[in-house]
């Protein structure tokens, strides 16, 4: 298994985008994601990492981008994924020198889950950030099993631990095992809104009643207004901070 960045191997970008999608359809409708995510290889190629197996196939990836961080936990946006994606591109356009980086997505093909590849990719991302002279690596983490407890506040969910003291959620635990700490909940990390016909298409649910609606794979309920033919989903994530050698 080899890890490459797209600055060195731009030819791997198409294979990276062709990896199996593991996200619920409605999350792919995030407006900032639609606008900016596909521009990451062009704008920040050295922060896009891909794992290539011995057969030459791309089987995992990490997408990240740099941003200017003040050194304070309070400098991480409450708008999480959306906020840091927008900020990274805005600061690049303004010529603002970055001091940290944020993970945006880490994905491993299903057949490679449980092999340690995700940890290898996260470690490679942290090493890349250090090599590029940045102080810290963050990530607005989407907890793997939060959708099983959609009515539990994220702040309470994050505090759930196993008997060994590690986080109960597998994805938060994977980060914690690499030395990452929970910083805060970002309550409005991704926002998806649309008319009810769109939501029916994305979820297969009738969306025929107003009020909060529990939707499979959603971390919190979707808010529905039949009267206004509108539904909105505001997803919380969890800011985590990975230590970087020589940085924070």
**How large a portion of the residues is in β-strands, by DSSP E?**
25-35%
CATH topology of the largest domain: Aminopeptidase
Q: What's the alpha carbon Rg, rounded to whole Å?
A: 18 Å
Helicity level = 25-40%
What kind of assembly state do the chains in view correspond to?
Answer: single chain
Taken in chain order, the helices and strands follow as EHHHEEHEHEHHEHEEE
Largest sheet: 9 strands, mixed
The span between the termini is: 29 Å
CATH architecture of the largest domain: 3-Layer(aba) Sandwich
CATH superfamily (homologous) name of the largest domain: Gcn5-related N-acetyltransferase (GNAT)
Shape: globular
What is the count of structural domains? Answer: 2
Mean pLDDT: 96
Structural class: alpha+beta
DSSP summary: helix tally: 8
- Look at the structure and give the CATH class of the largest domain: Alpha Beta
InterPro entries: Acyl_CoA_acyltransferase
Protein name: N-acetyltransferase
What would the keywords be for this entry?
2 domains, 27% strand, alpha+beta, Aminopeptidase, single chain, nine-stranded mixed beta sheet, 8 helices, 248 residues
Structural write-up:
It is a single chain. This protein is an alpha+beta fold. It folds into 2 domains: 2-187 and 238-242, Aminopeptidase, CATH 3.40.630; 193-232, no CATH class. Helices cover 27% and strands 27% of the residues. The chain has 8 helices and 9 strands. The chain has helices spanning 13-17, 31-36, 40-43, 80-94, 117-131, 154-158, 170-177, 196-203; strands at 2-5, 48-52, 58-67, 100-108, 136-141, 181-194, 211-213, 222-225, 230-242. Strands 1, 2, 3, 4, 5, 6, 7, 8 and 9 form a 9-stranded mixed β-sheet that branches. The radius of gyration is 18 Å and the shape is globular. The two termini are 29 Å apart. The mean pLDDT is 96.
């Amino acid at each position: 298994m080899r890890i490459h960045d797209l600055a060195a191997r731009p030819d791997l970008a198409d294979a990276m985008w062709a990896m199996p999608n593991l996200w619920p359809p409605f999350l792919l409708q995030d407006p900032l994601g639609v606008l900016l995510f596909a521009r990451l290889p062009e704008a920040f190629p050295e922060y896009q990492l891909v794992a290539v197996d011995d057969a030459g196939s791309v089987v995992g990836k990490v997408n990240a981008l740099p941003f200017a961080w003040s050194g304070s936990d309070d400098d991480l946006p409450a708008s999480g994924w959306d906020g840091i994606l927008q900020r990274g591109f805005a600061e690049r356009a303004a010529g603002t020198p970055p001091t940290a980086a944020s993970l945006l997505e880490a994905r491993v093909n299903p057949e490679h889950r449980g092999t340690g590849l995700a940890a290898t990719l996260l470690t490679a991302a942290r090493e890349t950030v250090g090599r590029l002279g940045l102080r810290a690596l963050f990530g607005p983490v989407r907890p793997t099993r939060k959708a099983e407890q959609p009515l539990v506040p994220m702040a309470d969910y994050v505090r759930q631990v196993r008997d060994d003291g590690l986080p109960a959620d597998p994805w938060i635990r994977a980060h914690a095992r690499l030395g990452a700490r929970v910083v805060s909940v970002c309550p409005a990390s991704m926002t998806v809104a649309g008319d009810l016909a769109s939501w029916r298409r994305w979820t297969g649910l009738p969306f025929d009643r107003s009020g909060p609606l529990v939707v499979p794979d959603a971390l919190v309920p979707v808010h529905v207004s039949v009267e206004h033919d509108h539904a909105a989903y505001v997803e919380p994530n969890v800011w985590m901070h990975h230590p970087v050698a020589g940085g924070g």
